[in-house]
TrEMBL record:
This is CCHC-type domain-containing protein. The keyword Zinc applies. The keyword Zinc applies. PANTHER family: DUF4283 DOMAIN-CONTAINING PROTEIN (PTHR31286:SF178), GLYCINE-RICH CELL WALL STRUCTURAL PROTEIN 1.8-LIKE (PTHR31286). The lineage of its organism: Eukaryota, Viridiplantae, Streptophyta, Embryophyta, Tracheophyta. Keywords: Metal-binding, Zinc, Zinc-finger. Residues 148-163 form the CCHC-type domain. Residues 243-262 have a biased composition (Polar residues). It comes from Arachis hypogaea.
Length: 274
């Protein structure tokens, strides 16, 4: 799954919970940023274990995932709108610029966010445009699995769901959730640029790399963790803990106070032209 990283040590930390010890900081980063991952059809929640938390205090309810935004016209496809729209889904970690050196390499937007696995997944939203009153755009989640087609929550399927069937915001006669919400993972925009023979100017490339590192540090619950781990382990990284979404469901009660018919996707998004 992670390319058999050299020296990886996995220890049991409780029911369906594990600590991953990587010998390489780079391999730990790739495992974390390449998620979400799945084992036997169940999604894993990988979290950095901050030095000031006990293993019981690690939060598994936030899942980093790449989200695609489809259905936008050409003049709305830009990184600023990716950030704005991504905030509907969850906390924005980083947004991908679909343009490299003035060349459009994607026909949709892509943003990495942390989503709350206890809340129903967002599916669509509407926005104003010049030629019509409004249009619908839709979300797709990369590598998504183990979610309910009835209520849209991660961690169980419709056979065990007690909620009413959620209806599409566009057509109330159609179900809101289905297999089309999931899509395969993509390589980075930099990889697409290399395939097309396009290279960023050195200064822009350096800025892009710095942004990735900043996003990573923000998601690790404080930069102090990095410093302490580097001093303590001399480059050895611990990624803990790994838990399947099914285990989260059995270990913790799902938040049934949230309305499964929550219409967050109905709100209008202010997006700009470029």
């Amino acid at each position: 799954m992670w390319g058999d990283p050299q020296g990886l040590v996995i220890t049991n930390a409780g029911p369906n919970s594990f600590i991953l010890n990587f010998k390489s900081q780079e391999e730990a980063r790739r495992a974390y940023e390449g998620g979400p991952w799945r084992i036997e059809g169940h999604m894993l929640s990988l979290q950095w274990w901050s030095s000031n938390l006990s293993i019981e205090e690690v939060n598994y309810n936030q899942l980093p995932i790449w989200v695609q935004i489809h259905g936008l016209p050409y003049d709305k496809i830009n990184i600023k709108n990716a950030e704005r729209i991504g905030a509907i889904v969850g906390r924005v970690i980083s947004a991908e610029d679909p343009f490299v050196e003035g060349n459009m390499l994607r026909s949709f937007l892509r943003v990495r966010v942390e989503i709350n696995v206890q809340a129903p997944l967002k599916t669509e939203f509407w926005f104003k445009r010049k030629d019509t009153d409004h249009s619908w755009a839709e979300f797709k989640y990369e590598k998504l699995c183990d979610y309910c087609y009835k209520c849209g929550r991660i961690g169980h399927d419709r056979r065990t769901c007690e909620e009413e069937l959620a209806r599409s915001l566009v057509n109330s006669e159609m179900p809101r959730y289905g297999p089309e919400l999931s899509t395969p993972g993509l390589k980075s925009i930099e990889n697409e640029a290399r395939k097309a023979g396009i290279r960023r100017r050195k200064e822009e490339q350096n800025n892009w790399v710095e942004e990735l590192w900043e996003a990573r540090e923000r998601s690790m619950q404080g930069r102090e963790w990095l410093k302490r781990q580097a001093q303590k382990n001399r480059g050895e990284s611990s990624l803990g803990d790994v838990r399947s979404s099914q285990a989260s469901a059995s270990a913790k009660s799902w938040d049934r106070s949230a309305n499964p018919q929550e219409q967050m996707g109905e709100r209008q998004v202010a997006i700009q032209e470029e």
